[in-house]
């Protein structure tokens, strides 16, 4: 018996020769280059991948965002220090330009000082005083939903007692957010003191230098709701022609934050020339705009509210709006939510209504609080305050001064313009508006010496308030918690402002239920 041994066949090796491997790589490069060339001819661009961000379901999302923000701040500071060191190195070894070294040091010191003091309370107050001193006519913009709360007695008294014999004109803005009957009552009430113009500023104007209307007719239609400020512009042009001084008429636009000062200027100009937004404090410095051949309008930052004001007035005029409301039924109808016992329950119902849910179906009350505050800060909600039943002149105003103010303007044209504005603009109805009680005129700060630094808060802290004292980064991160505290105002009972934050444009509010 013979045994035959058969050897197993070896598997073929997968190794390639270098020539073949290089040939494959070359073919792939040529193929990709051909695809890119064809895509370039067709105009197809590669889609840029966007950062998806941190998902809401991720644990410790706030910690991750805080670390990312800190890294970005470190990178910016490191790049700025490297740039500064490179410039200083070049200047150090430049023996022929000693004067340039001194000038550079002075510029660095001035820039650091400006960046430190800019946008502080004293800076904003000084900018407001510059606008008042440089203007011949002062326009005080009022919110038609609460005109009395938007008035600043200190500002009006300063304008009337100024040496330049300045004229004060009131503009009742946002008349579409209040019932028409209530707007008429306020016009009659305010015109007993100063000439008042009904106005509806357009908030959808585009920058004409960046975008052109494809159709002129469509462009006119889009600007029609604001009437291009025809009545107000005609009054200013008539006054500019009647005055005896030479040069263009300078008109200063002043008022509390978020009453629509920049939007009024944009409507007069017919294009977006001033930055305007829902957030308060968008305008930080004075800005001069030519709206006509003989008229210049100066935009100003908002008036700083005095810490001596009541809590409701402070929160309304300085930071996110808060109101005292006895009837919660209007809020239930406005947001279409059932009855609630406290603020947390209201936020929970609002989050469920808007499908603002976290992981596990938990309502996101913080996000609901942000939406709630944005509604009250902007012009989305329709509410109104009734004018006082009795009228009395303030102590700084007399009947002679009222007659003199009205004599400077064409009151017949003013009344016709107000009637046309109320007739042509669709105002909110009484049924869809919330009735509120005005807190009265709001005291403002015009003297820089009276302005305390915004970092100090300008008020005493109550129980339940937490102060971030470590650094600015932690203070920025805690904005969401401040919004959450602000949203407790939804019960509309016993609200009290307890602190102003420096650049966060928000307030901490305590609600004692």
TrEMBL record:
<dbReference type="InterPro" id="IPR006073">
    <property type="entry name" value="GTP-bd"/>
</dbReference>
<dbReference type="Pfam" id="PF01926">
    <property type="entry name" value="MMR_HSR1"/>
</dbReference>
<dbReference type="Pfam" id="PF08701">
    <property type="entry name" value="GN3L_Grn1"/>
</dbReference>
<feature type="compositionally biased region" description="Basic residues">
    <location>
        <begin position="35"/>
        <end position="49"/>
    </location>
</feature>
<keyword id="KW-0547">Nucleotide-binding</keyword>
<keyword id="KW-0342">GTP-binding</keyword>
<dbReference type="GO" id="GO:0005730">
    <property type="term" value="C:nucleolus"/>
</dbReference>
<protein>
    <recommendedName>
        <fullName>Guanine nucleotide-binding protein-like 3</fullName>
    </recommendedName>
</protein>
<dbReference type="GO" id="GO:0005525">
    <property type="term" value="F:GTP binding"/>
</dbReference>
<dbReference type="InterPro" id="IPR050755">
    <property type="entry name" value="TRAFAC_YlqF/YawG_RiboMat"/>
</dbReference>
<keyword id="KW-0175">Coiled coil</keyword>
<dbReference type="InterPro" id="IPR014813">
    <property type="entry name" value="Gnl3_N_dom"/>
</dbReference>
<keyword id="KW-0539">Nucleus</keyword>
<feature type="domain" description="CP-type G">
    <location>
        <begin position="125"/>
        <end position="306"/>
    </location>
</feature>
<dbReference type="InterPro" id="IPR030378">
    <property type="entry name" value="G_CP_dom"/>
</dbReference>
<dbReference type="InterPro" id="IPR023179">
    <property type="entry name" value="GTP-bd_ortho_bundle_sf"/>
</dbReference>
<feature type="region of interest" description="Disordered">
    <location>
        <begin position="35"/>
        <end position="59"/>
    </location>
</feature>
<dbReference type="InterPro" id="IPR027417">
    <property type="entry name" value="P-loop_NTPase"/>
</dbReference>
